[in-house]
Design brief:
Number of strands: 10
Distance between the termini: 19 Å
Helix content: 25-40%
Number of helices: 8
Strand order of the largest sheet: 1-10-9-6-2-3-5
Radius of gyration: 17 Å
Shape: globular
Order of helices and strands: EHEHEEHEHEEHEHEHEH
Bound molecules: 2-amino-2-deoxy-6-O-phosphono-alpha-D-glucopyranose
Strand content: 15-25%
Length: 262
């Protein structure tokens, strides 16, 4: 695992956007580059920088196919808090990606289990995901894989915990009762099956989750800890998120990254 420590949120986002653009530009196959994407506040700066790069001609998304991590169950795509709406207003509407290359779980499908099975099959039909960008929740959830979701889980319907309903209520009039109680989400194994996984962890409130991802044992209590089993996982984080790491851990990762640059 690589842990790339940047001094603040902006630098973390610039690093991640550069990494993603570099991977897309290095992809020379005729088959599309398959990119997994998250919602949330963590990736906003990454999306802004990728939009800038796209407009500046530094990266194109014409040969990129995307799969989003999750979507609320029962929210229509036109709802301002749907992840479909979030992704279009914050990213897809501003880049050159063909509309048919965008995949987002449909939270209004009357048969959500069939929706999820078809999503897994569609990912497989593209040969899997090349790079999965992710964020994590305060409790370490990866996509909507709350604590105690199986680390070998696949795309399916998830019940959200009270903690997540409270945290996400900031987008629903600060009323947890207004947050959809369930979501469709890729599984932990759907994420870790990707050839590369890049997870953004920013801010003091994610410090415990970062420590669990890096220093804790692999455990379904912290679904983000599954990254430890991935052969090419990268965590891009900022200084405030490092607050619960031991000094030694912090130094090791700085040493390793310094060596990478030599
Ligand atoms: C939601 C999403 C996750 C996201 C998490 C963290 O629960 N389902 O995919 O990683 O929020 O969001 P933020 O980046 O806003 O802290």
């Amino acid at each position: 695992m690589r842990v790339v420590i940047q001094k603040d949120y902006n630098n973390m986002c610039l690093w991640a956007a550069n990494y993603i653009a570099g991977r897309i530009n290095a992809h020379t196959d005729s088959r599309p580059f398959v990119l997994g994407l998250p919602t949330g506040s963590s990736p906003l700066g990454v999306y802004a920088e990728l939009i800038r790069k796209n407009k500046a001609g530094e990266v194109s998304f014409k040969n990129v196919v995307t799969f989003n991590m999750d979507e609320y169950l029962g929210l229509p795509r036109e709802h301002e808090q749907s992840y479909w709406y979030f992704m279009h207003s914050n990213f897809f509407d501003h880049i050159d990606i063909p509309a048919e290359n965008v995949n987002i779980l449909n939270g209004m499908n009357p048969d959500p289990e069939a929706e999820c099975a078809a999503y897994e099959a569609k990912i497989a039909s593209f040969g899997g995901i090349d790079l999965f960008l992710g964020g994590i929740g305060v409790d370490g959830h990866l996509a909507f894989n709350e604590p105690f979701t199986s680390l070998s889980s696949r795309t399916g319907v998830r019940a959200l915990t009270s903690d997540t309903l409270i945290v996400n209520s900031r987008f629903f009039d600060n009323d947890p009762a207004k947050v959809p109680a369930k979501a469709l989400s890729v599984g932990v194994a759907t994420v870790t099956d990707a050839k590369e996984v890049l997870v953004l962890i920013s801010g003091h409130n994610k410090a415990r989750a970062l420590a669990a991802s890096v220093e804790g044992g692999v455990s379904q209590k912290w679904t983000c800890s599954a990254l430890q089993l991935h052969p090419a996982a990268i965590i891009a984080c900022d200084e405030p998120a490092c607050g619960e790491l031991t000094v030694d851990t912090y130094k090791y990762f700085l040493d390793i990254e310094r060596a990478e640059r030599l």
